Amino acid sequence: MTKRVTILGATGSVGSSTLDLIERAPESFEVVALTANRDVDKLAAAAIRTRARLAVVADESCLAALRDALAGSGVEARAGAEAVCEAARAGVDWTMAAIVGTAGLKPVMAALEAGGTVALANKEALVSAGEVMMAVARAHATTLLPVDSEHNAVFQCLDRTAPKGVRKIILTASGGPFRNTPLEAMRAITPAQAVAHPNWSMGAKISIDSATMMNKGLELIEAFHLFPVDSEQLDILVHAQSVVHSMVEYVDGSVLAQLGTPDMRTPIAYALAWPERMPTPCERLDLAKVGRLDFEAADPVRFPALTLARDALAAGGARPAILNAANEVAVAAFLAGRVAFLEIAAIVADTLARYDPAAPDSLDAVLAIDAEARAYAAERVKDCVL
Ligand code: NAD
Ligand code: MG
């Protein structure tokens, strides 16, 4: 039976890996809709190749170019944030949520309301609106499958017959490109140095998050919402080789881990085929070649984002949404050359210190907090001189 699929964020790193797998198994998948922000050429080419029904750009100024690129192909062209949500609402069997940032929040909520299976890469949505999102998934009996490699690993290792048997979830972290960089040298880090991840090839925003280790902080909050554990049961362990993708420790002392080469197509394929498995062209893990696996504790002094995220998770309420919004603003400012690397965590800390609204109880409340936190963070960015 073919699965009808939609990819939100089809032109990005995760979106492209998803398309790669789907195009290798055309008999198994029918592409309904593909969306992107403004990368018209890449979106149109993918829509034509996969014979998608619909292609959507979020940026309305790109509609004419998209129409031109799709002329004569039979693929419908649409534009605007609402059109992205409508594409997410199309009622397919499987939706990949791979938009970056809280820009993906409304579309992912639309997909969760439409039902079926939602494969979640867009961690920022869950960090900002975890309670609201999980409630909608439950209410609509939507299956939410984690694509983030750590959470996918945990999902694979969880013994669902004995949820009370879990003692700890251990998220592994590569430590990013500056795992061993002294604090002094971190002051002068450039965007080009920071986006160059040692193990994974990813979009710019998550690459910077890996470099500050905010990515692991966001992943703590993501794991809290996805799995039946308290925040104190979540641990982080630095593992530079990115071979062990995460672990679950049980009360009897058993520790289950999922291993593989660092290629996002493995967790994406798991979510695409679930509850079955499908083959991928990923390089096979050769442990004899890897030779040894190293683990070490994370350094909260050089990576203050870890403590900020842990505190936000422990406090709950609006704190995770503020953490995420301020981080998105700070990372964009760093990538634009407007703030220094070490300012990213400082901007997040100051935004959290200045803004403390009540806990959000709806999607609109989350979006209002997100917007307000961005305004505070943007003010703080203006104070930075490079
Ligand atoms: P990316 O920057 O490569 O791609 C982002 C996609 O979102 C693109 O298709 C872009 O057009 C679209 N987009 C951007 N802004 C948008 C907007 N305002 N409205 C609609 N669409 C918009 O990012 P990525 O690396 O593929 O990451 C996507 C998500 O997956 C992120 O949340 C990231 O944290 C998560 N993730 C990525 C990886 C990875 O290996 N890249 C691994 C784990 C999790
Ligand atoms: Mg991850």
Describe the protein's architecture and organization.
The protein has helices spanning 13-24, 40-49, 63-70, 81-88, 105-114, 123-139, 149-157, 183-186, 191-195, 204-212, 214-226, 265-273, 287-290, 305-315, 319-335, 343-354, 363-382, and strands at residues 3-8, 29-36, 54-57, 76-79, 94-97, 117-120, 143-146, 166-173, 234-238, 244-250, 255-259. Helix content is 46%, strand content 15%. The chain has 386 residues and is α/β, with parallel strands linked by helices. The protein starts with a strand and ends with a helix. The chain is built from 17 helices and 11 strands. The chain folds into 3 domains: 3-147, Rossmann fold (3-Layer(aba) Sandwich), CATH 3.40.50; 151-303, no CATH class; 316-386, RNA polymerase sigma factor, region 2, helix turn helix motif (Rna Polymerase Sigma Factor, Chain: A), CATH 1.10.1740.10. Strands 4-3-2-1-5-6-7 form a 7-stranded parallel sheet, with helices on both faces. It has a 4-stranded mixed sheet with strand order 9-8-10-11, with helices on one face. It binds nicotinamide-adenine-dinucleotide (NAD) and magnesium ion. The site of nicotinamide-adenine-dinucleotide (NAD) has 27 residues, from helix 1, helix 6 and helix 10. Residues 259-375 form the DXP reductoisomerase C-terminal domain. Pathway: Isoprenoid biosynthesis; isopentenyl diphosphate biosynthesis via DXP pathway; isopentenyl diphosphate from 1-deoxy-D-xylulose 5-phosphate: step 1/6. Its cofactor is Mg(2+); Mn(2+). Keywords: Isomerase, Isoprene biosynthesis, Magnesium, Manganese, Metal-binding, NADP, Oxidoreductase.
